[in-house]
């Protein structure tokens, strides 16, 4: 009886499989960042569990406006503070952080920065240690 050996996969096939897996992983990561994947906030300061955070637009008036400091606030409180000054929120992005889930880790532009007409603020909100 002849000895059976495992069939080897050609190098080109391995390269294509690896490249496809890399592209798929990149798409999943990119979509997760875009839709703010991860569990929701806690303590009433942010969105509830399972809530997907999306882009929000608020009104804006003409003239020079300075971004208020929002780091450390809950995402809802930060959005409200920006809305009071008619500053549009471009996106809310969930990031892994040791800060409590739902609290603002940073904003871009940062608090104290004057905004040009039509500029938006991006909020980076803690998703907690689990990511």
From TrEMBL:
Q: Where is this region: Disordered?
A: 36-72
Q: Where are the transmembrane segments?
A: 14-35
Ranges for domain PASTA come to 60-127
| Chain intervals with Gly residues compositional bias | 36-49
Q: What is this protein called?
A: PASTA domain-containing protein
Q: Which InterPro entries match?
A: PASTA_dom
Which keywords does this chain's UniProt record carry? Membrane, Transmembrane, Transmembrane helix
